[in-house]
Specification:
The chain is of the alpha+beta class. It is built from 2 helices and 6 strands; from the N terminus they run βββαββαβ. The N and C termini lie close together (5 Å).
């Protein structure tokens, strides 16, 4: 697991964005704006038909991990998300 150091010499382990929970994401775009690396992109929320006619999800815009290899593990997207919809991994 790669270990980096902060400016004051403290150890820091990057956590890379793995996925975004489309059920939690409200599509506000805060994470998209916070990411300087271009990792995220807005998409149409996948249509979900769970056979319960009263609760069908009609879509909307949510965020997706468009370029996972560009993630530097800074966590800015997660700090900006009110719904905590991101999942991270350490490698």
């Amino acid at each position: 697991m790669p270990v980096a150091y902060t400016r004051d010499g403290s150890e820091w382990t990057p956590s890379y964005l793995e996925s975004i929970d489309h059920d939690s994401c409200i599509g506000c775009g805060r994470c998209f704006k916070a990411c300087a690396q271009g990792v995220l992109a807005p998409i149409e929320k996948p249509y979900v038909d769970d056979d319960d006619d009263d609760d069908e999800d009609m879509g909307g815009t949510v965020m997706s991990v468009a370029s996972p290899g560009a993630c530097i593990g800074c966590g800015a997207c997660g700090r900006s998300c009110a719904k905590k919809a991101q999942t991270y991994i350490t490698v």
